[in-house]
Amino acid sequence: MLNIALFGPPGAGKGTQSEFLINKYNLFYISTGDLLRKELKEETKLGLEAKSIIASGGLVSDEIIVQIIEKTITENPDSNGFLFDGFPRTYIQAYILEGLMIKLNTSLNCLISLEVDEEVSVQRLLNRGKTSGRADDNEVVIRNRLKEYNDKTLPVLQFYKDKGIYFEVKGDDSIEEVNANIQGIIKEELNKSLFNLVLF
Ligand code: AP5
């Protein structure tokens, strides 16, 4: 299986790159942001619980995230693996992901972090906000999302650095260049897995 997590601040391009990757590698897409917005739209109990937190740019509780992931993940996906977008965002979520991977008898191959300057993120999201209809794409909330990212999510990178599966990609290059760099990392990881398979 090929399991990837795309990491990075709001507006880094995680969703944009995910679209290419899920088609190219036939991956089962899990975006916790999209799943939460679906719950919100359907006015479910979880959606209503998360509503005010998303609107303010805060992080939804780990308990809610576990519930939406468990609702979505399937033990035998009709795909080559999983692509996680915007998950994990806390240390607890990183451990939850570890548990999930073990339960599915697989492991995360790589966590790819898209690095962009904060002001690039802000500008991109303000532009997206003009057409996306996302209530959290306004400057006050964007800045709070960035603060949450810096305070609570960024430290999680150490977990993946320690595991040796952390990769960094410059996110402010063109969409095509970012995509080519991500694919370069995935190709190397696939070659490594193939090598290990042949060797052992
Ligand atoms: P979520 O939906 O995950 O939002 P986010 O992380 O803030 O990320 P975005 O979707 O805003 O940005 P992106 O990196 O996907 O960028 P995109 O590709 O769209 O989360 C929303 C909220 O849900 C959170 O604030 C939180 O409350 C809650 N939540 C979600 N997951 C959670 C979790 N695990 N735990 C707790 N709470 C959680 O690109 C942005 C724009 O830039 C687009 O217009 C795009 O066209 C453009 N663009 C992209 N790449 C480029 C490029 N290379 N050059 C130029 N423009 C580009």
Strand and helix map with partners:
Blueprint: E1 4-7, H1 14-25, E2 28-31, H2 32-41, H3 45-56, H4 62-72, E3 82-85, H5 91-103, E4 110-115, H6 118-132, H7 139-153, H8 157-163, E5 166-170, H9 175-199
Parallel strand pairs: 1-3, 1-4, 2-3, 4-5
This protein binds BIS(adenosine)-5'-pentaphosphate (AP5).
- Count structural domains: 1
DSSP summary, beta strand count: 5
Q: What ligands can be seen in this structure? A: BIS(adenosine)-5'-pentaphosphate
Element-level helix/strand string: EHEHHHEHEHHHEH
Binding site for ATP: 11-16, 128, 173
GO molecular function, one term: AMP kinase activity
Binding site for AMP: 32, 37, 58-60, 86-89, 93, 134, 145
Keywords: ATP-binding, Cytoplasm, Kinase, Nucleotide biosynthesis, Nucleotide-binding, Transferase
Question: Can you describe this structure?
Answer:
It contains 9 helices and 5 strands. It has one domain (4-195): P-loop containing nucleotide triphosphate hydrolases (Rossmann fold). Helices cover 60% and strands 12% of the residues. The model has no long low-confidence stretch (mean pLDDT 94).
List keywords for this structure.
single chain; 200 residues; alpha/beta; Rossmann fold; five-stranded parallel sheet; 5 strands; 12% strand; binds BIS(adenosine)-5'-pentaphosphate
